[in-house]
Predict the 3D structure of the following.
Amino acid sequence: MANATPVRVRFCPSPTGNPHVGLVRTALFNWAYARHTQGTMVFRIEDTDAARDSEESYNQLLDSMRWLGLDWDEGPEIGGPHEPYRQSQRMDLYKEIAQKLLDAGHAYKCYCSTEELDARREAARAAGKPSGYDGTCRALTADEITAYEAEGREPIVRFRMPDEPITFTDLVRGELTFTPENVPDYGILRANGAPLYTLVNPVDDALMEITHVLRGEDLLSSTPRQVALYKALIDLGVAKYVPHFGHLPYVMGEGNKKLSKRDPQASLNLYRERGFLREGLLNYLSLLGWSFSADQDVFSVEEMVAAFDIADVNANPARFDLKKAEAINADHIRRLDVKAFAEACRPWLQAPHATWDPADFDETAWQAIAPHAQTRLTVLSDITANVDFLFRKEPVEDEASWTKAMKGDPVALLTTAREKLSGADWSSPDSLKEAVLAAGEAHGLKLGKAQAPVRVAVTGRTVGLPLFESLEILGKDRTLARIDAALAKLGA
């Protein structure tokens, strides 16, 4: 392939359930490479498995890509010179190319039954030999074919692998070689004529002129088969070249096992529901096999695009670390300007997340508390519990917080704190802090111990946003009323 060939990459998921973070990492690396090289991002849907694919999952994929900001240049809803971009709408094309492969001798009909194949595989394993297809039908005579068909056998179509090693240079792993005994002939059409992934994926890549195939390491074993198929397609005039391959490292989960779609932390929906910023999530996922620099883990999507090169991807497995993902997301939350942060939180201030009457929501109070909240959040969904004390008529009743804070002589402390706060300057958080500090000193308590009962009385929780700024925004009357209610609960 000439170096001057413009980069064309593809992201081709199957619509089978909600997207997982490993899939998103693959989409991100393809997208970033396309944008870095001013190339083309092709979005293609592999929906030939009618039993598992669904329109709901298809729509979910598109919605996820839009939310992530991973735009595409060709594909669903956009079209392009190689449409349609859904494999279910390209079936006749695959069958036509399969027939060309048969006619040219690159493929052949295989009449072996499942039982025969299983028996021969078992025998090969017992003998310590490779257990792939043994080539029984590679050179059938006309009489043998007639006899098989007379038995009513319906053949599959197999691609004929070359009898010499397959070598290619992986963009991540370097030069790799696969010997013939480890890459046997493989099926490309089922007995009912339905094309298999082994055919449709390379055919689409060839027809769509994909230059770089960037995909997960789990697909590496299929690459020599596809390299051979590309060469056959070049022979037929269907393909122009064999694309470059780059196999992305595994993403590992708990117990040093590959992160599975079934792992809760693998679900993209989880991160959307928790209120990850797209920038924070993409930043973290980009670090699963790649690094921006030795001393910088937090960067913008634009910075990633400017720096990304597939040659810099590490071949070693990457471990998914939820705590690090959250920390990076928190950094991106703090990078927002306050107005953007306030708007990003909006969904979690409304039904069904809000625990207060919508009529009690106070926009002025929200705008006042937002800058203080921004410095404390890990994910946007945390905002609901952090500001509910402002909009609820009564604070939450968190008994664990109450038990933890109301130790020693809380009545005496709260009584003194109320007295000091009553005379404080309510336009100054520092004045409110001095009032609680003075109350603590009167009872031999440092500020940390003194403010805990006040915080729980007013907000219902032992942890939250900066207390004295929160009291100022809540206001004198409501704060003192809540301290009174706490004293009453304590039997004062």
Q: What stands out?
A: The chain has a mean pLDDT of 94. Residues 21-36 form the longest helix (16 residues). The two ends are 84 Å apart (CA to CA).
